[in-house]
Specification:
The protein is of the alpha/beta class and 437 residues long. The protein has helices at 6-20, 33-49, 63-75, 90-95, 103-109, 121-124, 150-155, 167-180, 194-203, 210-213, 227-242, 256-261, 275-280, 320-333, 336-346, 353-358, 360-365, 371-376, 393-409, 414-436, and strands at residues 23-29, 53-59, 82-86, 100-101, 137-142, 144-149, 185-189, 265-271, 287-290, 308-315. Strands 1, 2, 3, 4, 5 and 10 form a 6-stranded mixed sheet that branches. A 4-stranded mixed sheet has the order 7-8-6-9.
């Protein structure tokens, strides 16, 4: 009989365990609540689908908090393999030389079947370089749409099945709603920056900045003070004074949704990803969906809207095994059934054509659920409508909010407020360029 010492047995067991150990990678994200629970479910689905790798998600707070935490961790050499970064952080991530591993390179290095052409152009274009190479993996992409209260429409004598398509119609409908007493306000909006400035520009094929909205280099500057943008801010000010538009606040406009839910305002422009929340809070009335309104005297409008949300970035400084795990996870994320399930649950856009096709029955059973995807793919993106890529854009959005409030207070007119956005924003862009050239 062969006898083994206790030490030999322990060593043997340890070696077998090491041979079977999974490679673990951390995924830092900014999704709490139901979205966070669904994200955890996706990670668990990947972990259960194979036995080589394990993804461990960790909630790190808001988008800015998550990005700040990842930067601090990178400096301390304690960074995660994957971090979720919101779309306006793209320029900052790109400029972090040596800090990221581009997704196209990651997938090629680890033998994953990866075709950027499979992704929806309006989604993937935001996260590609000038040569068309994907830098990060789209995950939760949204676009703003119009939500409206069909019950209020009917009470005001409007066709509940016909949302406004132009800003002139939206003004007309809002006045009729207010005058009829069906609601005290025609419309409100989330995100003055994202919806009423950036998407307003893209939807009308107007530039947000020079050099293809920043895609062409760090020396790009803002151009948000053109005639279409000025006209729109003038109208928002006038509509506010007339009481048919109510301002919901800065950033994501925390007060906008409650005004819509309570039926104070009959319409709201908000993220397509708010769909589940809007449905949950609109049981007292019938809900309708529409595309963003446009000015029909602007040539080329409507063009296409642009995305919000976030993508997943791979950080440098990890082992080949960890990168193999990240590549396998990204391959899992792009599977049509995974994407279709995520998009159906959340209201975020499916990121590939195959996932969109897989949602055909869902869209048939849920009228209006495809409004965002139809709007963002309405036309092939142009240089003006494929998105934006500026450094320090989180701060620039803060400037947009500040100047819009100056407009509403009467301290500045629309031209003066938007000129100030450009001047102050360009100062930030110049500082960012100097720091990252």
């Amino acid at each position: 009989m062969i006898r083994y010492s206790t030490a030999s047995v322990v060593a043997l067991v340890a070696s077998l365990g090491a041979a079977q150990a999974e490679t673990n990678i951390d995924w830092w994200h900014a999704m709490g609540g139901e979205l966070g629970a669904k994200l955890e479910e996706i990670a668990q689905g990947f972990n259960d689908s194979q036995d080589e790798y394990r993804v461990t998600p960790s909630y790190k707070g808001t988008y800015p908090e998550t990005m700040t935490a990842a930067i601090a961790a990178f400096r301390a050499n304690q960074q995660p393999a994957i971090v979720q970064v919101f779309e306006v952080g793209t320029g900052t991530m790109m400029a972090a030389d040596g800090a990221i591993v581009p997704v196209h390179q990651l997938m090629a290095d680890h033998g994953q079947d990866f075709d950027a052409a499979a992704f929806l152009p309006s989604v993937v274009g935001y996260y590609t370089d000038g040569d068309g190479n994907m830098l990060s993996m789209p995950f939760n992409s949204s676009t703003p749409i119009l939500y409206y209260n069909k019950t209020v429409f009917e009470a005001a004598g409007l066709d509940p099945e016909t949302p406004p398509t132009t800003w002139a119609e939206l003004e007309q409908f809002s006045n009729q709603i207010k005058e009829s007493g069906a609601a005290s306000c025609g419309f409100t909006t989330q995100w003055i920056s994202w919806i009423q400035t950036e998407n307003l520009s893209a939807w009308h094929n107007q530039p947000i900045g020079t050099l293809e909205n920043g895609f062409g280099g760090l020396d790009a500057r803002l151009s948000l003070n053109g005639p279409v943008q000025v006209k729109h801010w003038e109208n928002l000010k006038r509509w506010s004074d007339e009481g048919i538009f109510k301002y919901g606040g800065p950033v994501g406009a925390d007060n906008a949704a409650p005004m819509f839910y309570s039926q104070e305002c009959a319409m709201m422009m908000g993220s397509s990803a708010s769909r589940a929340g809007v449905i949950a809070n609109s049981s007292a009335y019938e809900l309708g969906y529409g595309m963003l309104p446009y000015y029909d005297d602007v040539e080329g409008a409507p063009q296409n809207s642009i995305i919000g949300g976030a993508s997943l970035w791979v950080l440098s400084g990890k082992s080949d095994e960890e990168y193999a795990a990240a590549a396998a996870f990204f391959d899992y994320l792009t599977q049509p059934e995974v994407q279709a399930d995520w998009a159906s649950f959340t209201g975020y856009l499916p990121i590939t054509q195959a996932a969109y096709d897989a949602m055909e029955s869902f869209h048939a059973e849920n009228p209006g659920a495809d409004t965002g995807i139809r709007q963002i793919t309405l036309n092939e993106p142009t240089e003006n409508s494929k998105g934006l890529r500026f450094g320090s854009y989180v701060q620039i959005r803060g400037v947009i909010d500040e100047e819009f409030e100056q407009l509403l207070s009467g301290s500045k007119d629309a031209q003066g407020a938007l000129d100030a956005v450009v001047a102050r924003g360009d100062d930030l862009l110049e500082q960012f360029q100097a720091q990252n050239q």
